[in-house]
Design goal:
This protein is mainly β and 160 residues long. It has helices at 64-70, 102-105; strands spanning 17-22, 28-31, 41-49, 53-61, 87-92, 97-101, 115-117, 119-120, 123-124, 131-133, 147-153. It has one domain (14-153): Sulfite Oxidase, Chain A, domain 2 (Alpha-Beta Complex), CATH 3.90.420. The chain has a 5-stranded mixed beta sheet with strand order 2-1-11-5-6. Strands 3-4-8-9 form a 4-stranded antiparallel beta sheet, with no helix packed on it. The chain has a two-stranded antiparallel ribbon with strand order 7-10. Bound molecules: ligand MTE and molybdenum atom. Molybdenum atom (MO) is lined by residues 49-51, 140-141. This is Molybdopterin-dependent oxidoreductase.
Length: 160
């Protein structure tokens, strides 16, 4: 049996808000419909859950990269390597969270087509909050639902 995981409101509930914060020139607070301002992508994904087995869903939404790039991450655009120290922390309402590296989604590096989904199987996520979609992931763990905060952090330093 899976645990009830979200404290997200139901379809009749209030609109969810997504906070973009951290090392950004233009931090933002977005409602799910605001994410329609970027080009929309579709992804049909299959992933395995250790508890519930194989899951299959169809998602639509903007690329995470497009949304975060618009928020102005404070790397030096003239020095491509400067981006390599940036992390992206994605958190759901229930506290489930995962880290991505900036380079993972950057078109000059890993180019992973990660979505910030606004619909799942045709159903809008306006009240539940957006969902992270990683078509390349075999496991479901990073498909975080009910996202309320994305923090971009350029403060990572490796200590030799
Ligand atoms: N907010 C939130 N998102 C989450 C989780 C969670 O506990 N909280 N679990 C993840 C795990 S382990 C899996 S396998 C998938 C399950 O997706 P499903 O509900 O479509 O089966 O959601 C992921 N997203
Ligand atoms: Mo899972």
């Amino acid at each position: 049996m899976s645990q009830p995981r979200a404290v997200a409101p139901t379809a009749a509930g209030p609109a969810a808000e997504l906070v973009l914060t951290g090392d950004l020139d233009r931090p933002a607070r977005l409602a799910v419909p605001d994410l329609l301002a970027w080009p929309q992508r579709e992804a049909d994904v299959r992933f395995e859950c250790a508890i519930n087995g194989m899951q299959q869903h169809s998602f639509t939404g903007p690329l995470l990269y497009d949304v975060l790039a618009a928020a102005g991450p404070v790397y030096d655009p003239a020095r491509r390597k400067d981006r390599l120290r940036f992390l992206i922390a994605v958190s759901g309402l229930d506290g489930h969270h995962a880290l991505l590296s900036w380079a993972e989604i950057d078109p000059d590096f890993g180019r992973a087509p990660v979505l910030l989904a606004v619909t799942i199987d045709g159903v809008p996520l306006d009240s539940a909050g957006p969902q992270l979609v990683l078509p390349q992931d075999r496991c479901g763990g990073r498909h975080i639902s009910g996202i309320n905060t994305i923090r971009v952090d350029g403060g990572y330093t490796a200590w030799a």
